[in-house]
Amino acid sequence: MSFWSSETLRDRALRERLIEPFQEARVKSAAYELSVGAEVFRTSTEPAVKTMLVPGAQFEIPPGQLALLITEEVIRIPPDAIGFISIRAGIKFRGLVNVSGFHVDPGFHGRLKFTVYNAGSRSVVVARGTPIFLLWFSSLNQPTADLHKGDHSGQMEITAEDVMRLSGDTASPADLKLKLDDLRLDYDKRIHALETNQTLARRLLIGLIGAVVVGAAGLIIKESLLPSSQPTVSSGSAVTNPAPASPPPSPPPASLPDAGSPP
């Protein structure tokens, strides 16, 4: 397998009508520069329908969005070759990348469709007729009878099925960041509400415990100030107070000695 040189590409493309319309100035570094065609579909478009472009008309591919582009040129891959496709570096540096196929089968005939994704942070503006795609031809070791027989053979336009296949929300990095920010904000609100509820619960619990302690202390103090209770007797018996104990007898007074008696 060998890639065609610029000379081979010019010669065979003209003789075999491999690229129509063909411009020799588009042959550069062994590749042919294909241009944007008359139709485009973008996932950012509402409603989800393709847009028809007049020559030179511009369109925008926002960040994080997909677009389906079709070439202005009709391509024919001969049985002894295979095609390889890409996007020019200048467009890639702006963030636009090809996310569809990267080769073209032998025997394919029709316009090429490119599904591109804007991975950059800014919109990419493209105009109809701008050469942004690259096509290389590479020779097989011999012509093959196993030619392209897929659904894309003979394609000339962006179909309704193409649009439906690509329609829907596209999770761009910018959209994901917004969703993450919303989730973080909602999480913070929930945590704040939970902390507030816990604070109120703690305050109520402390107040309840305080009320119980104060009530218990009041009961204890009240009981300590009440007079002692009288002894309880059985029914029919009289209550008698014990008689006070009689004081012990006083000792007899000592006798005084008589006058004139010896001591």
Number of E-state strands = 13
How large is the count of helical segments?
4
Q: What proportion of the residues form beta strands (DSSP E)? A: 25-35%
Structural shape: rod-shaped
Please state the second-level CATH architecture of the largest domain: Distorted Sandwich
Structural class: alpha+beta
Q: Kindly state the percentage of residues in helix.
A: 25-40%
Look at the structure and give the mean pLDDT: 85
**How far is the N terminus from the C terminus?**
165 Å
Largest sheet: 11 strands, antiparallel
**Number of structurally distinct domains:** 2
- Identify the CATH homologous superfamily of the largest domain: Deoxyuridine triphosphatase (dUTPase)
CATH topology of the largest domain: Deoxyuridine 5'-Triphosphate Nucleotidohydrolase, Chain A
Radius of gyration using CA atoms only:
52 Å
**Uncertain residue ranges:** 259-263
CATH class of the largest domain: Mainly Beta
